[in-house]
Amino acid sequence: MSKSIAIVGDRFMLPSVFAEHITEACGNGVDIRVLEQPWPDEPMEHGYAGSKLDGLKEFMGQPDEIAAFIGDAELLVTHLAPISRSMLERLPRLKFIAVSRGGPVNIDMQAARDHNVLVVNTPGRNASAVAEFTIGAILAETRLIRSGHEALRAGEWRGDLYRADRTGRELGEMTVGIVGYGAIGSRVVKLLKAFGCKILVADPYVQISTQDRNDGVEHVALGELLGRADVVTLHARVTPETTRFIGRDELARIKRGAFLINTARGPLVDYEALHDALVSGHLGGAMLDTFAVEPVPPDWPLLRLPNVTLTPHIAGASVRTVTVAAEQAAEEVRRFLAGEPPLNPC
């Protein structure tokens, strides 16, 4: 008897790609149905700013509609669809959920455990994309790429950017501090080595690799990293401990003229304090790809500052990210159907 699998994707995580990889991994013994949500053409909900579903972050879809689509499926593969306790109570046949993202922020994990539903995720699916984007973000700030571009678009030739007191610095002469040494942070370290810069890592929960240590990467406390780095780039997860952990005191500890890069998650930063640090000139600049509220309000003060580069949460957006996530999810589905242990249980 074939197993029923519901796939809820969107216009980034295409459900057709997941269906293709699951069929390839599992053969024809699966009955697949797909639903495509309108993200990113329409915004998702962000529980960081208050949620209609307690405990769920970054999700899209109405619970009744999602539950009706899942129906009697035993397996669910999803990117953004919410799974709450009340939904699980209506889905007694559901025993497996694969979330195509780094963390199951759209799943009530305690409820899943209570209902004996196995949840797996796809860690590192966008590690390459975000790491590459981070390098671009650092260069855009430190080499004045954004400043020069904006001036030319406004009809101004910024020859003064050649002045010794205004021009940028090369990465090879700078110290870069990476906060968080997971799949993305460790890859940023690898890419930065080619530039010859001094690299610091702050992460109290892991040890850096022997290779990185032999290459001169230093594992230091966050306070030391903030005081020494010319560029601070964030790659931590959002937890109670890390929520707004880059606040007024931490920003004051960063050396004057340094740059802050956030391609991780918006709630890591106190944006009012960041605004003040940028206006005062204590920070030389910032590059932000993620925000506490998304989309950002059109009157958000940071939009008006000249020393900030802002992008709409696109660091992880690449075709390869979708393929990697689909491959990981398909393998988890195959293992579940075969009675094998999961690779990435949540």
Polypeptide structure, described:
It is built from 12 helices and 12 strands. The chain has 2 domains: 3-121 and 318-338, 3-Layer(aba) Sandwich (Rossmann fold); 126-310, Rossmann fold, CATH 3.40.50.720. The mean pLDDT is 94. With 346 residues, it is α/β, with parallel strands linked by helices. The longest helix has 20 residues, at 319-338. The protein has a 7-stranded parallel β-sheet, with helices on both faces. A 5-stranded parallel β-sheet has the order 2-1-3-4-5, sandwiched between helices. Helix 1 (15-26) runs parallel beside helix 12 (319-338) and helix 5 crosses helix 7 (183-192).
Element layout with pairings:
Blueprint: E1 3-9, H1 15-26, E2 30-36, H2 63-70, E3 75-78, H3 85-89, E4 96-99, H4 109-114, E5 118-121, H5 127-142, H6 145-153, E6 175-179, H7 183-192, E7 198-202, H8 210-214, E8 218-219, H9 222-228, E9 231-234, H10 248-253, E10 258-262, H11 271-280, E11 283-288, E12 308-310, H12 319-338
Parallel strand pairs: 1-2, 1-3, 3-4, 4-5, 6-7, 6-9, 7-8, 9-10, 10-11, 11-12
Helix pairs in contact: 1-12, 5-7
Distance N to C terminus: 28 Å
The helix-and-strand class reads alpha/beta
* Major sheet: arrangement of strands: 8-7-6-9-10-11-12
Low-confidence stretches: none
Sum up the overall morphology in one term.
elongated
- Strand count, sense and closure of the main sheet? 7 strands, parallel
Determine the strand fraction and express it as a percent band: 15-25%
CATH topology of the largest domain: Rossmann fold
Question: What's the CATH class of the largest domain, please?
Answer: Alpha Beta
Write the CATH homologous superfamily of the largest domain: NAD(P)-binding Rossmann-like Domain
Q: How many extended strands?
A: 12
